[in-house]
Amino acid sequence: MRKLIYIFLTLCIISSCVQNTKTKQQDLLTRLNETAEKGIIYFGQQDATVYGHFSTCWGNADFKSDMSKICGNEPMILGFDLGGIESGDSLNLDGVPFSVIRNAAQTHLKKGGIVTFSWHPRNPVTLSNSWDTTAIVTADFEQIKITLKPWLKNVATFLNSCLTSCCDSDKNHQIIFRPWHEHTGWWFWWGQQTLTKEHYINLWHFTYSEIMNSLNRKDTKSILWAYSPNFGVNKDTYMERYPGDNEVDILGFDCYQFGADPTSYINDLNKTLAFMTELGYEHKKPIALTETGNESLQTPNWWTEVLLPVIEKYPVSYTMVWRNAYDKPEHFYVPFEGEASAEDFRQFVSNKKIILLENK
Ligand code: BMA
Question: Which of 94, 122, 294 to mutate to test the pocket of ligand 1 (most atoms within 8 A of CB)?
């Protein structure tokens, strides 16, 4: 009998170890795919843990994000932008030191959070910013790629440094990379009015192969690739510049509410999420609302009466709102202490479908 009890206890210990390892190693794509059946949505914010409304973390040991001040929890999805890395800058385009971004990304990954990187690189011809759409149409596309090659190397080196860590247990960290976003708009040099469809797809293939070939870790898929056109597309135009299932893991899209009236935003979200739900099933990929928000939170109860009622109807794996700029008072997307929508935000995140870092 004692022998039987001993065997039973040993089996329990082994099974619990296997279970723990499984949870720890559960890959990011599985986590995102499972949100639909669990009926949950991971929620996030760009730059949340490095600065907020009138506060920054660099050099500030007491820094607390706006979100954690409001609801005592950090976002599950944490976004950062790599604009500036292409030229070897030490600060990104919004003035955030890349060393701070790396630390914040690693800290978040270690806590079980999800990190996503976007990239607003300079115009490769004029070397001005992403919003400079001049000189691309007439440029030699092969020459653009020659300029981009070392830029992509810099991106890969930075991503490698975020994924490489001192601890063996962190070797399964993964991140989401979301390059060349909102390309169906007119405002970026890689947009559809500047690059032909063939060049856009070629740009994606080039980016994919340059970065994947420069990764230190070949053992596992350490980077998930997110494709995210801007709203205003239909099912066909969404896919028009799609680089293919092999180089995309997440089907995303960006959609903002401009001004206080949510009517057209709600329509756009419904229209886009309806066909993206179909695309998700057809391509067997999770869908995500990769950027959203209402700058300055102009609609009362925006969280519980505008955003939540729409996204909860669809299998959205995650959604991320944009940043609370430290230096532009009106440029915020999550309430800060004393802001009018703080209580509504607390209600939104207390909904059991909305998952933040601590309720993972
Ligand atoms: C934009 C704004 C800009 C910022 C850019 C990249 O939408 O927030 O201020 O430079 O994103 O982060």
Answer: 94
**pLDDT number for residue 26:** 63
Assess whether pLDDT exceeds 50 at residue 281: yes
- For 216, half-sphere exposure in the C-beta direction (CA atoms, 13 angstrom radius) is 14
Residue nearest to atom 3 of ligand 1 (CA): 94
Q: Tell me if the pTM is above 0.90.
A: yes
Angle formed at CA 210 by CA 209 and CA 215, multiple of 5 degrees = 95
| Cα separation, 310 vs 266, whole angstroms | 7
- 60 torsion bin: left (phi>0), alpha (psi -120 to 50), beta (else): beta
224-266 pLDDT tens trace: 999 999 999 999 999 999 999 999 999 999 999 999 999 999 9
